[in-house]
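Q: What would this chain look like folded?
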Amino acid sequence: MSLFDMISRTFFDFHSMAEVLPQLLKVGLMNTLIISIAATVLGTTIGLILALMGISPSRWLRAPARIYTDLFRGLPSILTILLIGQGLARYSYELFGPSPYPLGIFALSLIASAYMGEIFRAGIQSVEKGQLEACRALGMSYGRAMRLVIIPQGIRRVLPALVNQFIAIIKDSSLVYLLGLMVNERELFRVGQDAAVLTGNLSPLMLAGLFYLMITVPMTHLVNYVDDRFRTGRRKMTRPVSSLKEVDEMQQIAPLTSGRGQ
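A: My prediction, written as structure tokens:
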């Protein structure tokens, strides 16, 4: 068997891919999107709170935000997921039953919030201090100025970084399989791995990887596009104006001005 045949049978067996494709579409893709979107929404909410705590003048608010951020950014994602998924399993059983699905989402949201908090904080602090002072001079309270003027500008400036974080969450969702998801709760990686074990072929995992690429690569280009638009702004094309019109106007004005001079 040649090297090409071995690679093609191991990684590109289209028969094995076709067999696992329905499961990847109906189960894996759906659960990956549910986990990623839910973790992003929860992580964004917690991250914004952390950012506001981090820029607060009170050190009693800054210190917990700093500890939280350092903790969940410093720990490996796989360790955080295992600690949350196994350590809180007893309490989760009373609320959600035996499924570790919610705990996986919760663990990912804690990880994401630590990064998003720093992104939000950097965006808010990048807004010029003069804008806050101008809002205060107009009679706006600190909270209203932050809510209506400062925070919206800060979020807009870091929007590309937030989309990048969402891409990272999509990829980290593959680690939730360590908690032992049920059959109908498996995400893309778990579906591909189970099929690879049953068939003894890595083609299902290759197909799962293609699904991840189909989600993340367009979003990466979208981030670059949005970032470019925010940097350059919207450019409006205008027709070139001929200088002959200005010459005619000057010729019409010249006799009037010369007559006044006399």
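The chain has a mean pLDDT of 84.
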